[in-house]
């Protein structure tokens, strides 16, 4: 226990070590997080009237971010599968970064649900009425918390073993890895079923939503990991193998292509059949009776995803600049598609035919930015602590004096940017 507490103390000290870029980044995230906290306090005092949500559109930016981040949390699976099933050695150490991101994403998911509740002080009411197994919301609470615990155990154990300079016991983490693979798919499936199971919202009553959830998650999640690895390779002494970036790029390409195919299939079914439940889809893509607030959003998402796919199909895996651009475009495109393009249209028109559009308020936007900043702050600290441990500069017999960011010219890169 003493050794473990010493490990935690060293990790705490290492989180403050870095060059000016690291401190500037941490200061920026802290400032945004505090602005978000202040905005949430305003919401607690005045209620959800500070948001753009109404009786007609009761889910907005908070749930949109929640659905997006549930998918991003599944990014760890796209590293775990090649490593532990297909024995990809290039990704073996890098899988920890995916697990850490899953932890940060789940924390953000829970924060978005908390702020959307309006009165989190009454959370115990839900616990006292835990309608299990009938309630899908109860299932969602369970799968999210279990997935968080699984990832905390896996990455925490592997990092601590590297700190102790000993091989991890496979029986103590490999079974949890395979459980986490199934669980990652389950958290996204259960979240999709939350929407599909609402019979009063025809826009969501499609079996294809769950597969699209998983496909888009397996595209945006690894895209974020690619950006993380490129930054790590550029600003730290940790060398990221070129083959790892190439492997993840191929995974993103396949998942994004499947997601685009499923979107085309969904649009064909909706518009060609001209079903009675086409109103919400028409409102999203072309507007309805002069209401077209979401039209620019969805067409922007399609444009970004298309450009990202074109770039990824080009043989440019060695050109990290273009790969980074494609990943950013894909992440933003999927965020719009799974956020504003999925949640809000289901409420317009309402079951009684009302057309009420949704516009996020500044206070609502600040809360979202604050949660994102806090999640990135957690992820940055985790990565900052993990890199020196994996590189052997922070171990049980070494202090943090060796933990410094080395100049870029001292690194031996496998290839140029």
Which helices and strands appear, and what pairs or packs with what?
Elements: H1 2-14, H2 20-46, H3 61-73, H4 75-84, H5 95-117, H6 123-128, H7 136-164, H8 170-196, H9 209-235, H10 242-273, H11 279-285, H12 295-313, H13 320-338, H14 362-390
Helix pairs in contact: 2-14, 3-5, 3-8, 3-9, 4-5, 4-8, 4-9, 5-7, 5-14, 7-8, 8-9, 9-10, 9-13, 10-12, 12-13
Relevant terms:
14 helices; mainly alpha; globular
Structural write-up:
This protein is 67% helix and 0% strand. The chain is an all-alpha fold and 417 residues long. It has one domain (12-396): Up-down Bundle (Formate dehydrogenase/DMSO reductase fold), CATH 1.20.1630.10. The radius of gyration is 22 Å and the shape is globular. The protein starts with a helix and ends in a 27-residue tail after the last helix.
In short:
This protein is mainly alpha-helical. The chain has 14 helices and no strands. The protein has one domain (12-396): Formate dehydrogenase/DMSO reductase domain (Formate dehydrogenase/DMSO reductase fold, Up-down Bundle), CATH 1.20.1630.10.
């Amino acid at each position: 226990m003493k050794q473990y507490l010493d490990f935690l103390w060293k990790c705490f000290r290492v989180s403050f070590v870095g060059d000016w870029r690291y401190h500037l980044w941490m200061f920026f995230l802290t400032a945004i997080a505090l602005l978000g906290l202040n905005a949430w306090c305003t919401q607690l005092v005045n209620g959800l009237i500070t948001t753009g949500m109404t009786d007609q559109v009761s889910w907005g930016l908070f749930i949109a971010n929640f659905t997006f981040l549930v998918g991003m949390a599944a990014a760890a699976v796209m590293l775990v599968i090649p490593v532990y099933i297909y024995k990809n050695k290039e990704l073996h150490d890098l899988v920890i970064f995916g697990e850490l991101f899953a932890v940060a994403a789940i924390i953000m998911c829970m924060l978005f649900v908390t702020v959307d509740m309006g009165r989190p002080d009454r959370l115990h009411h839900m616990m006292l009425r835990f309608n299990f197994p009938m309630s899908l919301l109860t299932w969602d609470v369970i799968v999210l918390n279990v997935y968080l615990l699984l990832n905390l155990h896996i990455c925490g154990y592997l990092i601590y073993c590297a700190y102790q300079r000993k091989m991890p016991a496979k029986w103590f983490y490999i079974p949890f890895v395979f459980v986490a693979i199934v669980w990652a798919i389950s958290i996204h499936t259960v979240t999709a079923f939350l929407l599909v199971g609402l019979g009063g919202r025809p826009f969501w009553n499609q079996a294809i939503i769950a597969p699209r959830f998983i496909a888009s998650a397996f595209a945006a999640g690894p895209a974020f990991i690619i950006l993380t690895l490129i930054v790590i390779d550029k600003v730290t002494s940790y060398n990221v193998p070129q083959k790892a970036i190439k492997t993840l790029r191929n995974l993103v390409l396949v998942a994004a292509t499947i997601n685009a195919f499923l979107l085309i299939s969904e649009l064909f079914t909706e518009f060609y059949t001209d079903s009675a439940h086409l109103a919400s889809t028409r409102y999203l893509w072309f507007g309805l009776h002069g209401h077209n607030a979401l039209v620019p959003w969805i067409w922007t998402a399609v444009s970004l995803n298309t450009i990202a796919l074109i770039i990824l199909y080009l043989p440019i895996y060695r050109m990290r600049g273009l790969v980074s651009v494609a990943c950013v475009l894909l992440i933003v495109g999927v965020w719009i598609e799974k956020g504003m393009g999925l949640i809000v249209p289901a409420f317009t028109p309402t079951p009684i035919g009302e057309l009420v559009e949704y516009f996020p308020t500044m206070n609502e936007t600040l809360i979202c930015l604050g949660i994102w900043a806090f999640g990135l702050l957690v992820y940055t600290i985790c990565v900052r602590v993990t890199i020196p441990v994996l590189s052997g500069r922070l171990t049980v017999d070494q202090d943090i004096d060796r933990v410094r960011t080395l100049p870029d010219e001292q690194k031996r890169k496998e290839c140029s940017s």
